[in-house]
Amino acid sequence: MKLDQMKLGIIGLGYVGLPLAVEFGKNRVVIGFDLNLRRIEELRSGIDSTLEVDAHELSRADKLIFSNNLEDLRVCNCFIVTVPTPIDEHKRPDLAPLIKASQSIGQVLKVGDIVIYESTVYPGCTEEECVPILERISGLKFNKDFFVGYSPERINPGDKEHRLANIKKVTSGSTPEVANLVDMLYGQIIVAGTHKAESIKVAEAAKVIENTQRDLNIALINELALIFNLMRIDTEAVLQAAGSKWNFLPFRPGLVGGHCIGVDPYYLTHKAQAIGYHPEVILAGRRVNDSMGPYIASQMVKAMTKQSIQVRGAKVLIMGLTFKEDCPDVRNSKVVDVYRELLDYDCQVDVYDPWVDSEEALHECGLKILPHLNNEKYDGIILAVAHQKFKEMGIGRIRSMGKERHILYDLKYIFNANQSDLRL
What we know:
Elements lengths: L7 E4 L5 H9 L4 E4 L3 H8 L10 H6 L3 E4 L10 E4 L14 H13 L5 E4 L7 H14 L8 E4 L18 E3 L4 H12 L6 E3 L3 H31 L4 H8 L21 H11 L6 H10 L1 H15 L8 E5 L15 H10 L3 E5 L5 H8 L12 E6 L4 H12 L2 E9 L11 E2 L1
Parallel strand pairs: 1-2, 1-4, 2-3, 4-5, 5-6, 7-8, 9-10, 9-11, 11-12, 12-13
């Protein structure tokens, strides 16, 4: 297959798939496929609810066709899979979306076709899990009749500076020829350039350790915050002092959620355990980060108790639900852990986030959010996400939502230390 003969089908039009489809759709025919009819209809009308692509960018991709009909993919000879790869309630990899996508592609796969996976997986998953499905459904033979590639996504939701085109892309293929073709394909849209890995497994491993490294760094800072809190030392002041050294890494404590950092390490540890190695450091970091929600809730309760605020029945406002600032993404948000823990203390908890759709909050997090801030007075307020809108409200407006005696927990260091009652 030659580069100019490639007809792309992109499966999954979320935070990863849509920006990719739009970039390719500016210069070549692309079928953007998603099972969610509502999603397809909104994209056809020029609306992206993830806010990753605006209406102007969508209009520029004039060769992009949106569809939820599998038959429309039959014209494609190169399929790019960008479906989610979450973890289940037991923190094990949930490959269901990936398996379903592979089964669908297998129904339309033809001789000479290429399937490229972008979804985060553990090393070996593409060839051990996905390829057998493609072979079984299509009746074709791997690396004889069809080929695969792997190019891990590096999308950072809400980041308007680091966009798809200016983030270097790792590529790989199941044969040297396919690896070259996949690399050239992405080279057409990635201004920052590409890095061709020596194998699919190397590319898969590179992806999971990118976020595992960040997870461990944040876990270290979280553990330091726990220690410094016991010593009554301001963690942010310590980090600012340490940050005066040129090579000190600027990580901050907090909740570690989202679709990558809080998930990817479990893909690596799953594979490690499957081959007989029990990872110590990675899982220790995960335990620390997964414990932060309950810890934050307990700190809030202790602070209220010290101020003689009745905890049972106390009204608490959590400001922010998304896993990071200034984006609508609530996937794997650890703010939910704080919410649930406070409910266990019999608090009455309201959640407000101007970025989040109420239906999305109910579907993804199982909770109702306030449509807007009202005149309710709270015993406790937690600034859980550093949205710009919260900063613009100012400390006076936020304090005005508290009762005469209340606790303000500034989890994200939005305001100065002397303006809040509690910081992580």
